[in-house]
Structure to design on (1067 residues):
C-alpha cells in the first residue's frame, strides 16, 4: 500500500468505510507530518491537534455505528479566511492576529456537519490580496516543488499543503484567481465555483461581488466530493443562489465525446510564452483524444479584465475593510490619544503595504469626481466581459487556456511592482468578473515546475467541468506527480 | 428688509419591526447595552446582511400613503465614513434608487381652512447607527450598538415650508401618517422620529434660494420650533450685518437655545457611495404593491373627512382628534359607546387631554379607558349626574377609584330630580335670603333672568351640586314670581 | 490619470491610513502605475452599457421579520465582548467622541 499521505480523499473515504483505516490514524499521520514539516513550507498558520483528534474519534465512533458519509473522518485544512468558532482566524493579517471568531462560517459548519476533520488553518496573502503569498503577515509560503519559488496566491498555504502532502485537501477562496493560480503553481487541482454556488457567510470579505470559495485537491474527483459538501443556498448570504446542488461525483465518468471546447484567441496570442503554449496544447490534445472538439473563439474584451478588476476589487475592499477600526475586535494601537489617532494608527499599523495600497486605490476610485471614470466604467466593462462569455457559451461547452502566464516564479522576482504582480492573474480574473465556474488542472511540467490548464464552464455547469477534468485525469498523470519524496 | 424663511426637512422614522433591517437582532428599545447587537450588527469579519421584508413593506405603505411612486427596483448603497457608532465603517442606505419616489404631504396653513402640499423628494430605507455615551469612562466614550441596524425611513422634503409653524405641521402630519399606518410608534422621546432641518432665508419675493444650513438631530416639536427661530434670526443678523451664511451642519443646543457649527462634520466628507455588493437589487412587483394597498388602514386625511361627516364635528375638532391615531381611536370608541359624539369630543379634548398633559402621559397610558369614559358621558346624558359632577367623577376615575357608576354610587352623587326635595331646598334658600328676594321682585322682568342666577347657585350649593339644574330653575322661577 | 502625493494624503485621510511624506511620493508612484493600467478601460465605449454590480444580475430575496432573542442576553453579549480591546459596563470604549 502507498503511504497514507499519498491517498486521495476518495481513497481515504473508501478505506475508512471498509474499516481498514481509522480517522484517528490518518489524522494523526497528517498531524505528525505537519509537526515535522510545516516549518519548511509555512503553509499552516494554526494547527488544531486536539480538535482534529477529537473530531477523528467522533468520526470513528460514527463509522463504527454504521454511519456513512463521503467526508466522514476525512482530514483536510481550511484557508485562514474562514471563520472557525474558537479557533484563531487571521486572514493573513496582523489586524486579526488575536481574532478568535465566536461563530463558524457556513462552509465550516457544513463540512463539520459532514464529519470532515479539520487539521488547521492555512496561510494566505493578507486579506487574500496577492498572487504569491508574499503579503502574509505570517511569512511567505514556500512552493513544495522549489523552496525558492512562490506557491502562488492568495490560497498559497492551501495549495502548498496539498502539494506537500500536509493535507489531502483544503478549501480556498478565489477573487481573481486565488484558487486556480496557486493550484497551477503547486501542481494540484482547484475549482472556483459559480458566484453564488457556495455561501460567503463567515468568509472574510475581500471583494464581495467576486469572492467565491472552492475546493483545492489532488484530483477532480476529490474536488467533486468537497464541492458536494461546500455548496448550497444559505439564508445568511443573500447573494447565494437557490439552485439544487447535484451530486458532482455522479457524472464524473461520463464520456466527453463531442464536448465542445473553445480556445479564445486572446489567450493564445503571441504574448503567451511558447513553452507554456505547447504544454497547454499538449493537454488539449489529450482532451481531443477523448473526443472533445476544439473550437476557436473570441473574447474580445479580455484585455480589459485586469483594469476593470483592479478598480472593482479594491473599491469593494476599501469599504469591506473599514470595519477593522480597533473598536470591537482585532488589533488596536497602543494608547490612542484621540479617536482619529485610534483609527489611523490601528489601521496603519495593522494592515500591510499591499492591503493599504489597495484600500487607497479603491477609496480613490470611489471618491467624488472619479466614480464615473473608474467605478462606473469598470462595472460597464464588467458587463462587456460577461457578454463575451455568454456569446462564447452559445458555441461551446467549456473554454480552455492556461491558468497563469508562467510557472511559479522566484521570491521577490516581481519586486514590489504591483502591476507586474497583477498581470499574473491575466487569465483568471475575467472569470471572476463574469461569475463563472473554472478549474485549474495539473497539465505538465516546465523546468520541473507544474503548469496549469484552466477550464471555464458556463454558469452552474460545475458538473460538466468536473466531468471533463476527471476524464482528463484518467488519461494523464500530471496530477499524480508529487514534490514529496518520503 | 422683509425676509422669507425657507425650510426643508429630513425626517428619520424608526420602523416598528421585530428585527433589525439586516440582522435578526431584536429592534426593541431599552435593552441593556449591546445585548441586542449580534455578530452581524457588530460587523464581525465574514458576516453578511440579509434585508428584512417587513421594512420594505412598511416603506411601501408610507409611499402609498403619500401618493408616491414606488421604486420597482430598489438598491442599497454604502455611505463610507468612520464613526464609533457605525460598526461596518459604512452606513447601508439608498441613494440612486430609493424605495419611495416623488410624493406629497398636505399640511394646514396659517390661513384657516387652507391646505398646502409639501413635495416629498423621496424616502429611502437605511440603517440607524448606534449610540455614543459620553458619560465619563476615564475620558473615554462608551459605544452601545443596540440601535445600530434599526430600520429607518428617511423622508426628504423639498424646501417647501415657509415658517416653523409649517415645519411643525409637516412633522405632525408625518407622525400621523406613520402611526396611522402602524409602521412606527412615532415616539419622539425614544428617538423613533427625528428630524434634520435645512434652513435658509431670502429677501421676500426673491426666487433663488439662499445658502442653507442643516440643523441636526432635532427630537421634539418644541426644539424644532425654537431651533428654526434662532437659526433664522442668526442668518438675518449675519446677512443684515453684511456677512454671509456658510453652508454647514449645525447642532441645536437646547440649554443655550442656540445653534452651533459641528466641527466634527466640518471636514469636507467624501462618502464614496457605491452599490452594496452584499445586497442585490430588490424588485418590488405590482402584486406586492396591490396587496399592501388592499390592507392600508384609514389615513389621517380620510379620518378627518369621515369624522366631520359621520359625527358632525367641526373641521377644527376633527383635525385635533385625528392628529394622532391613538386619540382618534379613543374618541371613536367613546363616541360609539355613549352615542354622543359632541360630548365625547369635548371630553377627549378637554378633561382627558388636560389630565394627560398635566401628568405627562400619552393616551395609551390614560387611567380612564374609552369604555369607561363613555359610561361617564352616558350618565350625563341620562341625567344621572350633571356635567359639573361628572368632572368630579372623572377626577375620581383618574385616581383609580372605580368606574363612573361605582363612584356615583359610592359617593352618592346621583342627581336629585325629586321635585319635593328640590322644593324644600328652594324654600330654604328663599327664606334665608330676604334681601335678594326683595331685590328680585322689585326688578324689571328682563333683569330678573340675570338675578335668578344667584338663587340657582345657592340651591346647587345646598344640594352639593346634585340637584337637577333644569328643575331648580323651573321651581325657583315659579316660587319667586308668586 | 496620475495621482499626486497630496491626493494620496487626502485619500489616506478618508481611509484612516497614514502615509508619511516620503512614503506618499513612493505610494503615489505605485498607485499611479496601477491607475495607468486601469486607464486602459477608458479606450472602450461603454455609453450604452448598463453597469453590472452582480455577475448573475440576480435579485434579492428578503428575510421574514423574526427577531432572534438570545436566552441569556447579558451572557451572550459578554461572550461576544471577550474579543473586544476595551469594554466597560457592556460598552465598547473609544477615546472621547466629540460632536
Amino acid at each position: 500500500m502507498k503511504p497514507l499521505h499519498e491517498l486521495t480523499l476518495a481513497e481515504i473515504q473508501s478505506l475508512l468505510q471498509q474499516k481498514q483505516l481509522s480517522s484517528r490514524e490518518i489524522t494523526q499521520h497528517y498531524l505528525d507530518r505537519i509537526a515535522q514539516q510545516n516549518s519548511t513550507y509555512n503553509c499552516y498558520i494554526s494547527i488544531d491537534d486536539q480538535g482534529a483528534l477529537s473530531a477523528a474519534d467522533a468520526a470513528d465512533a460514527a463509522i463504527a455505528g454504521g454511519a456513512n458519509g463521503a467526508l466522514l473522518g476525512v482530514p483536510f485544512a481550511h484557508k485562514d479566511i474562514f471563520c472557525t468558532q474558537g479557533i484563531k482566524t487571521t486572514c493573513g493579517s496582523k489586524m486579526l492576529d488575536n481574532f478568535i471568531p465566536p461563530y463558524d462560517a457556513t462552509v465550516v459548519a457544513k463540512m463539520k456537519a459532514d464529519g470532515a476533520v479539520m487539521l488547521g488553518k492555512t496561510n494566505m496573502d493578507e486579506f487574500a490580496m496577492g498572487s504569491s503569498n508574499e503579503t502574509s503577515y505570517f511569512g511567505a509560503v514556500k512552493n513544495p516543488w522549489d523552496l525558492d519559488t512562490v506557491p502562488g496566491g492568495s490560497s498559497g498555504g492551501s495549495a502548498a499543503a496539498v502539494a506537500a502532502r500536509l493535507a489531502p485537501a483544503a478549501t480556498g477562496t478565489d477573487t481573481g484567481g486565488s484558487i486556480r493560480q496557486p493550484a497551477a503553481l503547486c501542481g494540484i487541482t482547484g475549482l472556483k465555483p459559480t458566484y453564488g454556488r457556495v455561501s460567503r457567510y463567515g468568509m472574510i470579505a475581500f471583494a464581495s461581488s467576486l469572492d467565491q470559495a472552492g475546493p483545492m485537491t489532488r484530483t477532480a474527483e476529490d474536488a467533486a466530493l468537497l464541492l458536494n459538501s461546500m455548496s448550497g443556498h444559505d439564508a445568511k448570504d443573500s447573494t447565494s443562489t437557490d439552485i439544487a446542488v447535484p451530486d458532482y461525483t455522479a457524472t464524473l465518468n461520463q464520456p466527453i465525446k463531442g464536448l465542445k471546447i473553445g480556445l479564445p484567441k486572446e489567450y493564445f496570442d503571441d504574448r503567451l510564452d511558447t513553452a507554456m503554449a505547447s504544454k497547454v496544447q499538449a493537454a488539449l490534445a489529450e482532451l481531443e483524444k477523448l473526443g472533445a472538439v476544439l473550437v476557436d473563439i473570441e473574447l474580445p474584451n479580455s484585455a480589459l479584465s485586469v483594469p476593470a478588476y483592479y478598480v472593482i476589487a479594491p473599491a469593494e475592499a476599501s469599504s469591506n475593510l473599514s470595519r477593522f477600526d480597533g473598536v470591537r475586535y482585532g488589533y488596536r494601537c497602543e494608547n490612542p490619544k484621540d479617536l482619529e489617532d485610534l483609527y489611523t494608527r490601528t489601521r496603519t499599523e495593522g494592515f500591510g503595504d499591499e492591503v493599504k495600497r489597495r484600500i487607497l486605490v479603491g477609496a480613490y476610485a470611489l471618491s467624488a469626481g472619479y466614480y464615473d471614470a473608474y467605478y462606473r466604467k469598470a462595472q460597464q466593462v464588467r458587463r462587456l466581459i460577461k457578454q463575451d462569455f455568454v456569446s462564447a457559451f452559445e458555441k461551446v461547452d467549456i473554454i480552455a487556456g492556461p491558468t497563469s502566464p508562467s510557472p511559479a516564479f522566484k521570491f521577490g522576482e516581481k519586486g514590489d511592482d504591483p502591476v507586474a504582480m497583477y498581470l499574473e492573474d491575466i487569465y483568471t480574473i475575467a472569470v471572476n468578473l463574469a461569475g463563472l465556474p473554472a478549474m485549474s488542472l495539473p497539465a505538465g511540467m516546465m523546468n520541473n515546475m507544474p503548469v496549469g490548464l484552466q477550464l471555464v464552464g458556463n454558469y452552474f455547469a460545475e458538473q460538466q467541468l468536473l466531468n471533463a477534468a476527471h476524464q482528463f485525469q484518467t488519461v494523464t498523470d500530471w496530477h499524480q506527480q508529487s514534490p514529496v519524496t518520503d | 428688509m422683509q425676509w422669507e424663511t425657507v425650510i426643508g426637512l429630513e425626517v428619520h422614522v424608526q420602523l416598528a419591526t421585530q428585527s433589525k433591517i439586516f440582522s435578526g437582532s431584536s429592534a426593541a428599545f431599552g435593552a441593556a447595552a449591546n445585548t441586542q447587537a449580534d455578530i452581524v450588527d457588530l460587523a464581525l469579519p465574514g458576516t453578511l446582511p440579509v434585508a428584512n421584508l417587513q421594512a420594505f413593506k412598511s416603506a411601501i405603505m408610507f409611499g402609498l400613503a403619500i401618493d408616491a411612486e414606488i421604486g420597482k427596483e430598489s438598491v442599497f448603497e454604502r455611505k463610507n465614513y468612520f464613526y464609533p457608532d457605525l460598526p461596518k465603517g459604512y452606513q447601508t442606505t439608498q441613494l440612486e434608487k430609493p424605495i419611495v419616489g416623488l410624493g406629497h404631504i398636505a399640511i394646514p396653513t396659517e390661513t384657516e381652512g387652507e391646505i398646502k402640499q409639501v413635495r416629498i423628494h423621496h424616502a429611502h430605507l437605511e440603517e440607524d447607527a448606534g449610540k455614543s455615551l459620553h458619560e465619563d469612562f476615564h475620558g473615554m466614550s462608551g459605544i452601545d450598538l443596540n440601535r445600530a441596524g434599526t430600520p429607518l425611513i428617511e423622508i426628504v422634503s423639498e424646501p417647501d415650508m415657509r415658517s416653523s409653524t409649517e415645519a411643525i405641521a409637516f412633522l405632525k402630519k408625518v407622525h400621523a401618517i406613520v402611526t396611522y399606518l402602524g409602521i412606527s410608534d412615532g415616539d419622539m422621546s425614544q428617538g423613533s422620529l427625528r428630524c434634520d432641518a435645512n434652513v435658509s432665508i431670502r429677501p421676500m419675493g426673491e426666487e433663488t434660494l439662499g445658502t442653507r444650513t442643516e440643523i441636526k438631530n432635532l427630537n421634539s416639536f418644541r426644539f424644532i420650533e425654537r431651533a428654526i427661530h434662532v437659526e433664522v434670526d442668526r442668518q438675518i443678523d449675519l446677512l443684515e450685518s453684511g456677512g454671509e451664511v456658510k453652508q454647514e451642519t449645525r447642532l441645536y443646543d437646547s440649554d443655550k437655545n442656540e445653534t452651533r457649527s459641528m466641527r466634527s462634520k466640518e471636514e469636507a466628507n467624501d462618502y464614496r457611495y457605491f452599490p452594496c455588493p452584499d445586497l442585490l437589487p430588490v424588485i418590488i412587483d405590482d402584486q406586492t404593491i396591490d396587496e399592501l394597498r388592499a390592507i392600508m388602514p384609514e389615513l389621517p386625511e380620510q379620518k378627518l373627512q369621515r369624522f366631520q361627516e359621520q359625527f358632525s364635528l367641526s373641521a377644527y375638532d376633527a383635525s385635533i382628534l385625528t392628529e394622532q391615531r391613538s386619540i382618534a381611536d379613543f374618541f371613536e370608541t367613546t363616541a360609539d359607546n355613549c352615542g354622543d359624539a359632541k360630548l365625547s369630543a369635548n371630553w377627549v379634548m378637554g378633561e382627558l387631554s388636560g389630565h394627560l398633559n398635566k401628568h405627562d402621559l400619552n393616551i395609551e397610558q390614560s387611567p380612564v379607558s374609552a369604555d369607561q369614559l363613555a359610561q361617564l358621558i352616558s350618565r350625563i346624558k341620562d341625567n344621572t349626574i350633571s356635567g359639573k359632577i361628572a368632572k368630579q367623577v372623572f377626577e375620581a376615575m383618574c385616581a383609580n377609584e372605580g368606574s363612573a357608576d361605582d363612584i356615583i354610587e359610592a359617593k352618592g352623587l346621583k342627581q336629585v330630580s325629586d321635585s319635593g326635595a328640590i322644593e324644600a331646598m328652594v324654600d330654604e334658600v328663599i327664606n334665608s335670603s330676604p334681601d335678594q328676594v326683595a331685590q328680585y321682585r322689585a326688578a324689571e322682568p328682563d333683569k330678573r333672568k340675570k338675578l335668578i342666577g344667584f338663587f340657582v347657585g345657592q340651591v346647587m350649593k345646598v344640594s352639593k351640586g346634585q340637584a337637577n339644574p333644569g328643575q331648580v330653575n323651573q321651581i325657583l322661577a315659579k316660587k319667586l314670581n308668586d | 490619470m496620475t495621482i499626486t502625493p497630496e491626493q494620496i494624503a487626502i485619500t489616506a485621510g478618508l481611509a484612516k491610513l497614514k502615509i508619511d511624506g516620503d512614503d506618499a511620493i513612493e505610494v503615489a508612484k505605485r498607485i499611479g502605475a496601477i491607475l495607468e493600467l486601469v486607464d486602459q478601460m477608458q479606450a472602450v465605449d461603454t455609453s450604452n452599457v448598463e453597469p453590472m454590480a452582480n455577475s448573475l444580475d440576480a435579485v434579492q430575496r428578503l428575510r421574514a421579520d423574526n427577531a432572534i432573542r438570545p436566552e441569556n442576553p447579558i451572557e451572550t453579549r459578554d461572550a461576544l465582548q471577550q474579543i473586544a480591546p476595551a469594554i466597560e459596563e457592556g460598552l465598547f470604549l473609544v477615546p472621547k467622541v466629540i460632536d
Notes: Chain B has three domains: 3-289, 298-411, 419-481. Chain B has a mean pLDDT of 91. Chain B has 15 helices and 15 strands. Residues 3-289 of chain B form one domain.
